[in-house]
Amino acid sequence: MLLISCPNCGSRDETEFHYGGQAHVPYPENPNELNDREWAEFLFYRDNTKGAFAERWLHSTGCRQWFNMLRDTVTYEIQAVYPMGTARPDAAAAAAPDSGTASTAPDSTTTGTTAPDISGTSTTPASTPAPEGATT
What we know:
The protein contains two helices and six strands, in the order E-E-E-H-E-E-E-H. It is mainly beta. Strands 3-4-5-6 form a four-stranded antiparallel β-sheet, with no helix packed on it. Mean pLDDT is 79; it is low at 96-116.
């Protein structure tokens, strides 16, 4: 469960908040001139980035105010909380020095290219008798 720091109320449990989608999506300058495809892209197409992502959040059971949050979509680490209408902070500057990101080392099992060593493991089950009444 996330602990979200509301800019007005302080730290609260994530159950008090509602996600509002991607932040900083500009409204079209001339909405009457958009065709159906352009409207669909404005309404439904959003970035799906891996890593730092700017989001809108509503503190629905507290102050009922909207704010923006910069959150890592991999680690769920909240890197910055900032008011609506403010520019997105730089992800590198907002992240803590020990941000807890995944390893990028070549031997990493999460992001590297080398597979983990499984030579000492077996895929055959141990020879134990089946429980009484079990069918094989």
